[in-house]
Amino acid sequence: AEMAIEWVNADTNVLPNHELHLLIKDTQCRTDVAMRSFIDLATNTTIPIAGILGPGCTDEAEPIAAISKHFNMIIVSYSAGAASLNNKQKYPYFFRTVPHINYYRYVYEKLFLAMNWLQIGAIAEVGKEFTEYHRLLKDHLHSRGVYMIARNKMMNSRDPLDLSK
């Protein structure tokens, strides 16, 4: 993002008479922190905000994307993958740079079959979309001869994981 802003600001043919700035907010993949940051930015009358890059996590992206239409503010997520965010009636100002998560099942299928991995396990951070996604992935892979024999969720933690045990 910083490189893009530097490039745009350096080229007088792109957005003439405008200068872009990057305001960084660490939302920690927490909905409450993301909402507070969004409200602060959206209601700031001294700095005009063109749009928001982020949030990265689906659980925080959904409420931000839902409220952004009331502020006519574009939201571009770099990693929120939930299929529910495809609803343009509900999230008209939401865009993303990655496909929604349901497309990954085809990638996983090709990878697992190419590697001859016919039994796999899945681990994901706790989030509401992953329960449904794992079910869809399991069903899809099963129909292709790949079996999900283990599935687990892990808590989102900023603490380093101790793998020595």
From TrEMBL:
Bilayer topology term: Multi-pass membrane protein
Keyword field contains Hydrolase: no
GO cellular component: G protein-coupled receptor heterodimeric complex
Record keyword Mitochondrion present: no
Protein's cellular compartments: Membrane
InterPro entries: ANF_lig-bd_rcpt, GPCR3_GABA-B, GPCR_3, Peripla_BP_I
Principal subcellular localization: membrane
Residue ranges annotated for the Receptor ligand binding region domain, each copy included: 2-155
GO molecular function, one term: G protein-coupled GABA receptor activity
A Pfam family this chain is assigned to: ANF_receptor
Top-level taxon: Eukaryota
Keywords, ordered alphabetically: G-protein coupled receptor, Glycoprotein, Membrane, Receptor, Transducer, Transmembrane, Transmembrane helix
PANTHER family: G-PROTEIN COUPLED RECEPTOR 156-RELATED, GABA-B RECEPTOR
Protein name as annotated: Receptor ligand binding region domain-containing protein
The species this protein was found in: Octopus bimaculoides (California two-spotted octopus)
